[in-house]
């Protein structure tokens, strides 16, 4: 098929590279010439493990990038993957979606039937909006010349290639039979895993080889649009929940790593998204929960559980900052070292991260801040220009003469650090691991005053870590 992906961000570039890998002639459109040039030179416009390799393998072969909409004329399926940032009131700003719809409308071909796919996360009802903009700009008739469908993306940053090639489910919201048939044909490769294993070298990973095929779920458009928001909000609630339990564990002396493990053994609960952190953040959960809450308020249908999860998440950021303030007493003039600025590992995405909240709390009470992140420092600095902090290229530089270290993001690189050398650099060996990720007993053995969240400070390595055969 002839595929077009509008937007070369976290959604469009991954989706485009995936369909090109599966043999479809795929063109990514971006209005930013620099990104287009980058893709044409075989490089990814975003940091995502494995994406550079895919783009360089397929560019000029089945993958193309341009900065204009002419290619829409030849397209069978056009994915819209542009950003939908939050407006100040929490609702999603649809200006880029509208521009994309106008661009499509102006170039749609009356001689063929084209499916337009909303892949961006968009409020319920946006497919209708896109359809009317295309109709206005093209003069063509919906359902005769084109149809708009919803196909929400569930890609996790850092694992986007795994998720695009081996998804749990593909959700298609369509009210048009022809569009539904074309989407089903397009996704056959991913659903049936044809030639997957011969091609696995190109995917740059060799995991998930259990070959469990994804569920292909067809529904109406509005339900598909809602599935995306409801899923992300549910995951946010789940994390807020375990983080609250962690806070209670800390007071009562229980170990939240054991608690989440024990809970997760119940198949109704599952073990995913029960890892403690300083709170969820990033480019999706805050934006999606804000949009859902704003819309629900407008329609007089308040969502108390999600509202509480958002509040609880802010409390979790504060809880971490308070824990350090209590532990190190006055932070005035003290130096705190932060490891990790991105909202999770394997991404350069530093939008809306808990680091920006926690660092501000330290700065307010007079602490000096040093930071390191393997990929996120450039974006973090650009988004937080007013923060007076020292950016270090090496974690060892962060450790130099600090009064406390805080690990916010569980990059593997931090587990692999030479912690003895880190210990030699610090002024005070206090370390808070907000992800319960490091080997605390080892860290204590070499002299660190190490603690995690919700695990108490004396027993760290969970004795309940074993499921015993009886
Ligand atoms: C999310 C959704 O998972 C994905 O399906 C959707 O399409 C886009 O939004 P993403 O934002 O990339 O993906 O990150 P995700 O892996 O879901 O993590 C979100 C945040 O929750 C991160 O800050 C992460 O560190 C945190 N988290 C996750 C926890 O604190 N604990 C957990 O157990 C899991």
Task: Give a verbal description of the structure.
With 470 residues, this protein is an alpha/beta fold. It has two domains: 2-219, NAD(P)-binding Rossmann-like Domain (Rossmann fold); 255-451, Rossmann fold (3-Layer(aba) Sandwich), CATH 3.40.50.720. The protein has 18 helices and 14 strands. It has helices at 12-21, 33-40, 51-58, 95-107, 126-138, 160-165, 177-192, 196-203, 221-252, 256-264, 285-298, 304-328, 354-364, 377-383, 395-399, 412-415, 419-425, 440-445, and strands at 2-6, 25-29, 63-66, 77-80, 114-118, 146-150, 169-173, 215-219, 335-339, 368-372, 390-391, 404-407, 430-433, 449-451. β5, α5 (126-138) and β6 form a beta-alpha-beta unit. α9 runs parallel beside α12 (304-328). The longest helix has 32 residues, at 221-252. Bound molecules: uridine-5'-diphosphate-xylopyranose (UDX). Uridine-5'-diphosphate-xylopyranose (UDX) binds at residues 153-157, 232, 235, 239, 273-275, 277, 280-282, 284-285, 343-344.
Please provide a brief summary of the model:
The chain is α/β, with parallel strands linked by helices. It has helices at residues 12-21, 33-40, 51-58, 95-107, 126-138, 160-165, 177-192, 196-203, 221-252, 256-264, 285-298, 304-328, 354-364, 377-383, 395-399, 412-415, 419-425, 440-445, and strands at residues 2-6, 25-29, 63-66, 77-80, 114-118, 146-150, 169-173, 215-219, 335-339, 368-372, 390-391, 404-407, 430-433, 449-451.
